[in-house]
Design brief:
It holds the Pfam family Peptidase_S58. By secondary structure, the protein is of the alpha+beta class. The protein has a single domain (about 20-285, about 295-335), classed as 4-Layer Sandwich (L-amino peptidase D-ALA esterase/amidase). It is built from nine helices and 15 strands. The two termini are about 30 Å apart.
């Protein structure tokens, strides 16, 4: 593994962990399938340790380009809350993971679907079919439970969980995470991002403003560029007191961080951002909802900057953390470090 230090995006400081877990209460867990042609998995993000069905958190999503097969986004758009942990997996694993989420919610709340309303599972996906034999439908409900049980404030990134079979910029992609601390008046708020990066073509790759992909494409003598057909899921968490309308605005700023890495949101790309706040919860069976004083919209710019920077940093982190993987039919994706032995030299500040 290269000892090259990952460049820091922007001027805002990161939190102590440098991941989405810098937002208090947020935890992440993985279940990784690494068995020959099965190179896939499940990643779970919990907004807090309580029952998310009984204590929902405000949330919103932005569909930047809708070439995806996720489940649960419609109800988030309508009601503005999360009712389950956020689950990430491959495209054909969505149904199995949603079933596991429903069963887990019923196990904790037997009234669901009877005395109470049904539960809204939330599963977001990317297509890992280049490295993973996606037709084998290897992801099972039990893998969601394993990832859920593994959730913690410290977690691996790179070629793990849902990121095991993902590719970015014709290199190995996967799970990345980052955080930023934003000051609003006299208060500091954490904004954290976790991405499932599976997008981009090599010539597009930009890291810290350096068009690294152009140089790498020249070295590879890449043939006629293919269209971008990958996807990315961007999960943004904050402890700032925001409602779902404001979180919708925050989630849209994830696109700024994505664009800085070289993405143009291609026709076949599924680019989805979800934002939630841990500052307050919505009780399932309460008559009234107690909300804290919400931030004035005119004071949201520091959070917008933190969102864009943390998403960009998380994408870089996914590339930085990934390891080389060989999957189905001997398909192989090199990690950034294996593909670019002189990475440090290429990323040095350019002078004129």
């Amino acid at each position: 593994m290269s000892v090259v230090s990952m460049p820091h995006v922007g001027v805002l400081p990161s939190g102590a962990l440098g991941t989405i877990a810098d937002v208090g209460g947020v935890t992440v867990g993985h279940c990784t399938l690494d068995d020959g042609a099965a190179q896939t998995g499940v990643t779970v993000i919990r907004p807090h340790r309580d029952d998310p069905y009984r204590q929902k958190v405000p949330a919103a999503a932005s569909v930047i380009n809708g070439f995806g097969k996720s489940i649960g986004l419609m109800q988030i758009e309508e009601l503005g809350v999360l009712e389950t942990p956020v689950a990430l997996t491959n495209t054909f694993g969505v149904a199995a993971v949603a079933q596991a989420q429903i069963r887990a919610a019923i196990a904790s709340n037997p009234q669901i679907g009877r005395e109470w309303s049904t539960v809204n599972p939330l599963v977001l996906e990317c297509n890992d079919g280049y490295l993973n034999d996606i037709q084998a439908l290897a992801v099972e409900p039990s893998h969601y439970m394993q990832a859920l049980d593994a959730t913690a404030s410290t977690f691996e990134r790179g070629s793990v969980g849902a990121g095991r079979g993902m590719s970015s910029f014709d290199l190995k992609g996967g799970i990345g995470s980052a955080s930023r601390v934003a000051s609003v008046g006299s208060k500091d708020f954490a904004v954290g991002a976790l991405v499932l990066a599976n997008f981009g073509r090599l010539p597009m790759l930009t890291i810290g403003g350096v068009p690294l992909g152009r140089e790498l494409a020249l070295r590879r003598q890449t043939a006629k560029p293919r269209p971008e057909q990958g996807s990315i899921i961007m999960i943004v968490a904050t402890d700032a007191p925001l409602d779902s309308r404001q979180l919708k605005r925050l989630s849209m700023r994830a696109a700024a961080g994505l664009a800085r890495t070289g993405s143009v949101y291609g026709h076949g790309s599924g680019d989805i951002a979800l934002a939630f706040s841990t500052a307050w919860t919505v009780p399932h069976d309460g008559d009234f909802v107690a909300t804290p004083p919400l931030l004035n919209d005119a004071r949201l710019d520091p959070l917008f900057q933190a969102c864009a920077d943390s998403v960009e940093q998380a994408i870089v982190d996914a590339l930085w953390s990934a390891t080389t993987v060989t999957g189905r039919d001997t398909h192989r994706r090199l990690s950034l470090h294996d593909a670019v032995p002189d990475l440090e030299q290429l990323l040095k500040p350019r002078t004129t």
